[in-house]
Design goal:
Helices cover about 40% and strands about 15% of the residues. It is of the alpha/beta class. Residues about 310-318 have low confidence and may be disordered. This is DDE Tnp4 domain-containing protein.
Protein backbone atom coordinates (compact mmCIF):
# COMPACT_ATOMS: atom_id res chain seq x y z
CA UNK A 1 0.00 0.00 0.00
CA UNK A 2 2.97 2.31 0.63
CA UNK A 3 4.06 2.13 -3.01
CA UNK A 4 2.15 3.23 -6.06
CA UNK A 5 1.86 0.71 -8.88
CA UNK A 6 0.32 0.58 -12.31
CA UNK A 7 -0.19 -3.16 -12.67
CA UNK A 8 -3.19 -4.02 -14.79
CA UNK A 9 -5.01 -7.17 -15.84
CA UNK A 10 -5.71 -8.24 -19.41
CA UNK A 11 -8.93 -6.21 -19.25
CA UNK A 12 -6.93 -3.04 -18.70
CA UNK A 13 -8.26 -2.49 -15.18
CA UNK A 14 -5.70 -1.72 -12.44
CA UNK A 15 -4.96 -4.47 -9.93
CA UNK A 16 -5.81 -3.57 -6.34
CA UNK A 17 -3.46 -4.32 -3.46
CA UNK A 18 -5.67 -7.30 -2.59
CA UNK A 19 -5.41 -8.54 -6.17
CA UNK A 20 -1.63 -8.23 -6.08
CA UNK A 21 -1.36 -10.13 -2.80
CA UNK A 22 -3.59 -12.85 -4.24
CA UNK A 23 -1.37 -13.17 -7.32
CA UNK A 24 1.77 -13.47 -5.18
CA UNK A 25 0.21 -16.00 -2.83
CA UNK A 26 -0.96 -18.06 -5.80
CA UNK A 27 2.58 -18.09 -7.20
CA UNK A 28 4.20 -19.05 -3.87
CA UNK A 29 1.61 -21.60 -2.79
CA UNK A 30 1.08 -23.38 -6.11
CA UNK A 31 4.60 -23.43 -7.51
CA UNK A 32 3.03 -23.20 -10.96
CA UNK A 33 4.91 -21.50 -13.77
CA UNK A 34 4.57 -17.78 -14.40
CA UNK A 35 2.92 -18.49 -17.75
CA UNK A 36 0.31 -20.83 -16.21
CA UNK A 37 -0.60 -18.36 -13.48
CA UNK A 38 -0.71 -15.50 -15.96
CA UNK A 39 -3.04 -17.47 -18.22
CA UNK A 40 -5.34 -18.51 -15.37
CA UNK A 41 -5.56 -15.00 -13.89
CA UNK A 42 -5.55 -13.04 -17.12
CA UNK A 43 -2.25 -11.30 -16.39
CA UNK A 44 0.97 -11.02 -18.36
CA UNK A 45 3.57 -13.44 -16.94
CA UNK A 46 6.10 -10.62 -16.48
CA UNK A 47 3.48 -8.86 -14.34
CA UNK A 48 3.10 -12.02 -12.23
CA UNK A 49 6.88 -12.04 -11.71
CA UNK A 50 7.04 -8.34 -10.78
CA UNK A 51 4.11 -8.58 -8.39
CA UNK A 52 5.54 -11.66 -6.67
CA UNK A 53 8.91 -10.01 -6.16
CA UNK A 54 7.29 -6.82 -4.89
CA UNK A 55 5.34 -8.92 -2.38
CA UNK A 56 8.58 -10.62 -1.25
CA UNK A 57 10.21 -7.23 -0.68
CA UNK A 58 7.18 -5.97 1.24
CA UNK A 59 7.21 -9.04 3.48
CA UNK A 60 10.91 -8.55 4.19
CA UNK A 61 10.22 -4.94 5.18
CA UNK A 62 7.04 -5.46 7.21
CA UNK A 63 6.86 -9.10 8.27
CA UNK A 64 10.09 -9.88 10.12
CA UNK A 65 8.38 -9.84 13.52
CA UNK A 66 6.55 -13.05 12.55
CA UNK A 67 9.79 -15.06 12.81
CA UNK A 68 11.83 -14.42 15.93
CA UNK A 69 13.33 -16.11 18.95
CA UNK A 70 11.18 -15.83 22.12
CA UNK A 71 11.81 -12.44 23.70
CA UNK A 72 10.29 -12.94 27.15
CA UNK A 73 10.83 -15.48 29.92
CA UNK A 74 7.09 -16.23 29.99
CA UNK A 75 7.08 -17.08 26.26
CA UNK A 76 10.09 -19.37 26.64
CA UNK A 77 8.60 -21.09 29.68
CA UNK A 78 5.44 -21.85 27.69
CA UNK A 79 7.54 -23.35 24.89
CA UNK A 80 9.50 -25.52 27.32
CA UNK A 81 6.32 -26.65 29.03
CA UNK A 82 4.72 -27.62 25.73
CA UNK A 83 7.82 -29.51 24.59
CA UNK A 84 7.82 -31.45 27.86
CA UNK A 85 4.17 -32.39 27.29
CA UNK A 86 5.11 -34.12 24.03
CA UNK A 87 7.29 -36.82 25.53
CA UNK A 88 8.77 -35.59 28.79
CA UNK A 89 11.94 -33.74 27.70
CA UNK A 90 12.40 -31.03 30.35
CA UNK A 91 13.82 -27.55 29.64
CA UNK A 92 13.88 -28.12 25.86
CA UNK A 93 13.64 -24.87 23.84
CA UNK A 94 13.52 -26.07 20.25
CA UNK A 95 13.94 -28.78 17.65
CA UNK A 96 16.36 -28.21 14.74
CA UNK A 97 16.35 -29.79 11.30
CA UNK A 98 17.57 -29.09 7.75
CA UNK A 99 15.81 -29.50 4.42
CA UNK A 100 16.95 -29.28 0.80
CA UNK A 101 15.34 -26.99 -1.77
CA UNK A 102 16.09 -28.90 -4.97
CA UNK A 103 17.00 -26.94 -8.11
CA UNK A 104 17.51 -27.80 -11.77
CA UNK A 105 20.72 -26.12 -12.93
CA UNK A 106 22.79 -26.58 -16.10
CA UNK A 107 25.31 -29.38 -15.52
CA UNK A 108 27.61 -28.02 -18.23
CA UNK A 109 28.26 -24.94 -16.07
CA UNK A 110 30.80 -26.15 -13.51
CA UNK A 111 30.27 -23.07 -11.34
CA UNK A 112 27.09 -24.86 -10.28
CA UNK A 113 29.01 -27.84 -8.89
CA UNK A 114 29.10 -26.31 -5.40
CA UNK A 115 25.32 -26.80 -5.25
CA UNK A 116 25.56 -30.57 -5.84
CA UNK A 117 24.58 -32.41 -2.65
CA UNK A 118 25.38 -35.93 -1.49
CA UNK A 119 22.41 -37.31 -3.43
CA UNK A 120 23.71 -35.73 -6.67
CA UNK A 121 20.99 -33.06 -6.79
CA UNK A 122 21.55 -29.32 -7.04
CA UNK A 123 20.05 -27.90 -3.86
CA UNK A 124 19.99 -25.01 -1.42
CA UNK A 125 19.70 -25.60 2.33
CA UNK A 126 17.17 -24.30 4.83
CA UNK A 127 17.98 -24.95 8.50
CA UNK A 128 15.27 -24.16 11.03
CA UNK A 129 14.66 -24.29 14.78
CA UNK A 130 11.02 -25.03 15.54
CA UNK A 131 8.82 -24.60 18.61
CA UNK A 132 6.11 -27.09 19.76
CA UNK A 133 3.43 -25.28 17.72
CA UNK A 134 5.60 -25.80 14.59
CA UNK A 135 6.51 -22.13 14.32
CA UNK A 136 9.91 -21.49 12.83
CA UNK A 137 11.85 -19.58 15.50
CA UNK A 138 15.24 -19.24 13.82
CA UNK A 139 16.25 -19.98 10.23
CA UNK A 140 19.37 -19.88 8.11
CA UNK A 141 18.96 -20.20 4.36
CA UNK A 142 21.11 -19.93 1.25
CA UNK A 143 23.99 -22.35 1.82
CA UNK A 144 24.75 -24.91 -0.91
CA UNK A 145 23.43 -28.44 -0.51
CA UNK A 146 26.99 -29.74 -0.65
CA UNK A 147 27.53 -28.60 2.96
CA UNK A 148 26.71 -30.74 5.99
CA UNK A 149 24.09 -29.85 8.60
CA UNK A 150 26.90 -29.34 11.12
CA UNK A 151 28.80 -26.84 8.96
CA UNK A 152 25.67 -24.82 8.25
CA UNK A 153 24.89 -24.70 11.96
CA UNK A 154 28.44 -23.65 12.85
CA UNK A 155 28.17 -20.73 10.42
CA UNK A 156 24.91 -19.46 11.91
CA UNK A 157 24.40 -16.56 14.29
CA UNK A 158 22.44 -18.93 16.55
CA UNK A 159 25.53 -21.10 17.02
CA UNK A 160 27.70 -18.09 17.83
CA UNK A 161 25.19 -16.68 20.32
CA UNK A 162 24.76 -20.07 22.01
CA UNK A 163 28.51 -20.67 22.27
CA UNK A 164 28.94 -17.21 23.79
CA UNK A 165 26.20 -17.86 26.34
CA UNK A 166 23.92 -15.20 24.87
CA UNK A 167 21.21 -17.67 23.83
CA UNK A 168 19.77 -20.69 25.68
CA UNK A 169 20.99 -18.98 28.84
CA UNK A 170 17.76 -18.94 30.83
CA UNK A 171 16.58 -21.01 33.76
CA UNK A 172 18.31 -24.22 34.72
CA UNK A 173 16.44 -27.06 36.34
CA UNK A 174 17.66 -29.50 38.97
CA UNK A 175 17.12 -33.03 37.71
CA UNK A 176 18.16 -34.44 41.06
CA UNK A 177 20.48 -33.39 43.83
CA UNK A 178 23.68 -31.99 42.36
CA UNK A 179 22.56 -32.52 38.76
CA UNK A 180 21.46 -29.44 36.79
CA UNK A 181 20.15 -29.12 33.27
CA UNK A 182 20.39 -25.89 31.29
CA UNK A 183 18.34 -24.84 28.29
CA UNK A 184 18.98 -26.74 25.05
CA UNK A 185 17.60 -27.67 21.67
CA UNK A 186 17.51 -31.13 20.08
CA UNK A 187 18.61 -32.33 16.65
CA UNK A 188 19.16 -35.57 14.76
CA UNK A 189 22.49 -37.37 14.34
CA UNK A 190 23.52 -35.03 11.53
CA UNK A 191 24.26 -32.36 14.14
CA UNK A 192 27.13 -32.20 16.65
CA UNK A 193 26.48 -33.17 20.26
CA UNK A 194 26.97 -30.00 22.31
CA UNK A 195 26.10 -28.80 25.79
CA UNK A 196 23.12 -26.90 24.30
CA UNK A 197 22.28 -29.27 21.39
CA UNK A 198 21.40 -32.84 22.30
CA UNK A 199 21.46 -35.60 19.69
CA UNK A 200 20.42 -39.27 20.01
CA UNK A 201 22.74 -42.07 21.07
CA UNK A 202 24.15 -43.83 18.01
CA UNK A 203 24.30 -47.17 19.79
CA UNK A 204 21.75 -47.19 22.58
CA UNK A 205 22.88 -50.11 24.73
CA UNK A 206 21.27 -49.45 28.10
CA UNK A 207 17.58 -49.11 28.93
CA UNK A 208 17.90 -45.46 29.91
CA UNK A 209 19.78 -44.62 26.68
CA UNK A 210 17.04 -46.31 24.65
CA UNK A 211 14.45 -44.39 26.65
CA UNK A 212 16.25 -41.11 25.93
CA UNK A 213 16.30 -41.90 22.20
CA UNK A 214 12.59 -42.72 22.25
CA UNK A 215 11.69 -39.42 23.89
CA UNK A 216 14.15 -37.51 21.71
CA UNK A 217 12.69 -38.97 18.50
CA UNK A 218 9.11 -38.23 19.52
CA UNK A 219 10.06 -34.59 20.16
CA UNK A 220 12.36 -34.15 17.16
CA UNK A 221 9.52 -35.09 14.82
CA UNK A 222 7.99 -31.64 15.45
CA UNK A 223 10.68 -30.06 13.28
CA UNK A 224 10.28 -32.70 10.59
CA UNK A 225 6.52 -32.14 10.38
CA UNK A 226 6.98 -28.35 10.37
CA UNK A 227 9.36 -28.47 7.40
CA UNK A 228 7.14 -30.96 5.57
CA UNK A 229 4.18 -28.64 6.12
CA UNK A 230 6.18 -25.62 4.95
CA UNK A 231 7.11 -27.29 1.65
CA UNK A 232 3.65 -28.77 1.14
CA UNK A 233 1.84 -25.47 1.67
CA UNK A 234 4.31 -23.23 -0.19
CA UNK A 235 4.98 -25.45 -3.15
CA UNK A 236 7.29 -23.03 -4.94
CA UNK A 237 10.01 -24.45 -2.67
CA UNK A 238 8.75 -28.04 -2.87
CA UNK A 239 10.94 -28.44 -5.92
CA UNK A 240 12.52 -29.04 -8.20
CA UNK A 241 12.88 -25.35 -9.14
CA UNK A 242 13.93 -24.78 -12.74
CA UNK A 243 16.86 -22.40 -13.22
CA UNK A 244 16.10 -20.21 -10.17
CA UNK A 245 17.90 -16.94 -9.53
CA UNK A 246 20.20 -18.18 -6.74
CA UNK A 247 20.62 -14.67 -5.35
CA UNK A 248 16.86 -14.21 -4.99
CA UNK A 249 15.93 -17.74 -3.96
CA UNK A 250 17.01 -17.40 -0.29
CA UNK A 251 14.71 -14.39 0.05
CA UNK A 252 11.78 -16.30 -1.46
CA UNK A 253 12.40 -19.23 0.90
CA UNK A 254 12.59 -16.87 3.87
CA UNK A 255 9.29 -15.22 2.96
CA UNK A 256 7.69 -18.67 2.73
CA UNK A 257 8.93 -19.21 6.29
CA UNK A 258 7.26 -15.96 7.38
CA UNK A 259 4.02 -17.02 5.70
CA UNK A 260 4.24 -20.44 7.40
CA UNK A 261 4.25 -18.71 10.79
CA UNK A 262 1.49 -16.26 9.84
CA UNK A 263 -0.78 -19.17 8.91
CA UNK A 264 -0.13 -20.80 12.30
CA UNK A 265 -0.89 -17.50 14.08
CA UNK A 266 -4.14 -17.20 12.11
CA UNK A 267 -5.10 -20.69 13.23
CA UNK A 268 -4.77 -19.61 16.87
CA UNK A 269 -2.14 -22.29 17.54
CA UNK A 270 -4.31 -25.03 16.07
CA UNK A 271 -2.58 -26.88 13.26
CA UNK A 272 -5.64 -28.05 11.35
CA UNK A 273 -4.02 -29.47 8.25
CA UNK A 274 -0.98 -31.62 8.94
CA UNK A 275 1.04 -32.99 6.04
CA UNK A 276 0.43 -36.57 5.03
CA UNK A 277 4.06 -37.39 5.88
CA UNK A 278 6.84 -35.83 7.94
CA UNK A 279 9.37 -36.74 5.23
CA UNK A 280 10.40 -33.31 3.95
CA UNK A 281 13.58 -34.63 2.28
CA UNK A 282 12.45 -37.69 0.37
CA UNK A 283 15.32 -39.87 -0.90
CA UNK A 284 17.89 -38.13 1.32
CA UNK A 285 19.86 -40.39 3.62
CA UNK A 286 20.48 -39.54 7.28
CA UNK A 287 23.73 -37.68 7.90
CA UNK A 288 26.00 -38.71 10.77
CA UNK A 289 28.10 -36.11 12.57
CA UNK A 290 31.01 -37.47 14.62
CA UNK A 291 31.62 -34.22 16.51
CA UNK A 292 30.90 -34.52 20.23
CA UNK A 293 31.53 -32.16 23.10
CA UNK A 294 32.45 -33.59 26.52
CA UNK A 295 29.99 -31.34 28.26
CA UNK A 296 27.33 -32.40 25.78
CA UNK A 297 28.03 -36.07 26.58
CA UNK A 298 27.64 -35.35 30.29
CA UNK A 299 24.40 -33.40 29.79
CA UNK A 300 22.87 -36.15 27.66
CA UNK A 301 23.99 -38.88 30.09
CA UNK A 302 22.53 -36.99 33.05
CA UNK A 303 19.23 -36.55 31.27
CA UNK A 304 19.03 -40.19 30.22
CA UNK A 305 19.83 -41.27 33.79
CA UNK A 306 17.11 -38.95 35.04
CA UNK A 307 14.56 -40.81 32.90
CA UNK A 308 15.51 -44.04 34.63
CA UNK A 309 14.73 -42.40 38.00
CA UNK A 310 11.42 -40.83 36.86
CA UNK A 311 11.52 -38.06 39.46
CA UNK A 312 10.15 -34.57 38.75
CA UNK A 313 12.73 -31.84 38.14
CA UNK A 314 12.67 -28.55 40.03
CA UNK A 315 13.32 -25.14 38.47
CA UNK A 316 15.52 -22.23 39.53
CA UNK A 317 17.13 -19.22 37.86
CA UNK A 318 20.68 -19.61 36.61
Amino acid sequence: MARQSNFTGSNGKPLSVTDQVAVALRRLSSGESLSNIGYLLGINQSTVSQITWRFVEAMEERGLHHLCWPSTEAEMEEIKSNFEKICGLPNCCGSIDTTHIVMRLPTVDHSNDVWIDREKNHSMLLQAIVDPDMRLRDVIVGYPGSLSDAIVLQNSSFYKLSEEGKRLNGKKIELQEGMELGEYIIGDSGFPLLSWLLTPYQNALSDHQAEFNKRHSATQVVAQIALARLKEMWRIIHGPMWLPDKSRLPRIIFVCCLLHNIVIDMEHKGVDELPSSHQHDTDYRQQICETVNKTGIAVRDNLSLFFSGKSSPSTHSS
